[in-house]
Amino acid sequence: MEEQELPYTLINVIGGLGGIYEDHVEFLEKHLKLIPMKDFLENKETLRHKIQAVFVWMHKPVINRELLQTLPNLKVIVNSGAGIDHFDLKLIFSFGVKLANTPLAVTNATADLGMTLMLASARRIVEGHQISVSPDTKHFRADWLGEEVTGATLGIIGMGTIGYKVAQRAKAFEMKILYHNRNRRKEADEQAVGAHYCHKMEELLQQSDFVMLVVNLTPQTHKLIGEKELKLMKPTATLINICRGQVVDQDALVNALQNGVIKAAALDVTYPEPLPRDHPLLQLKNCIITPHIGSATSQTRFLMMRNMVESVLAAVQGLPVPNEVQG
């Protein structure tokens, strides 16, 4: 493409805490004409008819009715990551605008983090590090023990692409794999990883040593895990959440962790993010929290960006849009 033909693409900002990565800009500018929000607001009447795409990186810019009404020639919104719960899909589609995300790009990194959290919690890695570097440590206790992952039972709630990637990794740890999903996977898929389907989530909760949440956030999965579900879990079990914080009733989780209803939790997601600094989850030794880093590797973030560019180019050329979200 010649430079003048590059699709005008609205972004939030380059650099900073939530901006497009500066080392992505060279690639992006080969394919897109980037319009930062500040420039757009200063030259709205000139630019509003030229914008054909909005590049939503880490939930910014926010897509609302006012913005959609301002961009009469908008063809596509592309989103970093797999989750789309921050979009009003009905609103977007009512303007005839397409939406695309990057579900395949994030699968390996997110599955890796799920395994990382499981291992770190089981072997008490965070506590162990704190003991090892503490100036008060004079010796290492021989009775400071964790739990075995190899041979344990892993229950995966949400056996989509990421959940299946987790199962593939868990198989290498010789784990017994249970899963609950809206739809049962093909028998060949189950056999490949040795996974057993639980028609009822309650069955999975009662049997699992580790329960990993890998579902999309929908009205049906909001607070999917609450007081009742936590009480069904083994008192020796660990809950791992790598999807969305709202899938878990956090008040119920605090109570369960404080009172020995379950042994531990390992969370890459909470609500809100970050938690208030006085939140009780932050005070619990049996809870590991990471800052929503499922896709946060340099390789995955670059792949996400490339996928988003491909979706923009397809949309403005009238071609089928890769990873298009269906209404």
Automatic annotation (TrEMBL):
Keywords: Oxidoreductase. Gene3D superfamilies: NAD(P)-binding Rossmann-like Domain. The keyword Oxidoreductase applies. Pfam families: 2-Hacid_dh, 2-Hacid_dh_C. It comes from Anolis carolinensis (Green anole). InterPro entries: D-isomer_2-hydroxyacid_DH, D-isomer_2_OHA_DH_cat_dom, D-isomer_DH_NAD-bd, NAD(P)-bd_dom_sf. GO terms for molecular function: NAD binding; oxidoreductase activity, acting on the CH-OH group of donors, NAD or NADP as acceptor. Residues 115-294 form the D-isomer specific 2-hydroxyacid dehydrogenase NAD-binding domain. This is Glyoxylate reductase/hydroxypyruvate reductase. Belongs to the D-isomer specific 2-hydroxyacid dehydrogenase family. Residues 22-325 form the D-isomer specific 2-hydroxyacid dehydrogenase catalytic domain. Signal peptide: none annotated.
